[in-house]
Amino acid sequence: MSRLILCGAGHVSRALAQVAALLEFELCVLDDRPEFADPARFPAGAQVLALPFDEGLKRLGSRPDDFFCILTRGHTWDKACLARILNGQFAYVGMIGSRRKVAATMEALAAEGYSQERLAAVHAPIGLMLGGQTPAEVAVEIAAQLIQIRAELGPALAPPPAEPGVLCTILKKTGSAPRGPGAWMLVCPDGHTVGTVGGGAVEYQVGRDALELWAAGGSAREGTYDLGSGADLGMVCGGRITIRFQRQ
Is the pTM of this model over 0.70? Predict the structure, then answer.
């Protein structure tokens, strides 16, 4: 089960938690204000932490299938949360705020050395733009995007099976590649696969490279694949992915 980590425990976060509880996420809520980070305000079973954001995120850690929603009370806390999250693993990260405030946050993080490809992974402003105004409506917009991303990732969010083969995991993505960081495919010695790293020509080539690693007795390596129409793979989606190959 993927974790949904809500940074901020205000009105939108509380409404989103109610919806997320129905979507079978493992819910975590974090806020530095104890009166807001009160378990009584959130669904039963939610992990609610009343801690400074940086400390709370450090305690929670990160997983490839984590979904992060940054819903704090101000620009300063948004930036601090995003900086911490971008240094870890995630399947999704979204940040609330006007386009102007989002742009200012991105510019500040770029000036601190965060790459454009990493910043491009952030969904900001957060959610599907359906015209929502109230906290409940905004929560539904965000939940709709979470459902969309979870459906796109599909089996990549499930743990890989513990059987012999080469586990191929996407470490980095740029452009419009169909799968993002954390997506995986297990290539078994007989050639059959479980999971997906994008389908088509790139998946075929990754499968071949995984079998070569297995046959050579290698343990791990990385490879980068260009999906642009002018590249060897000739995929129309474009983009580029970096894959980690690991024998298991």
Answer: no
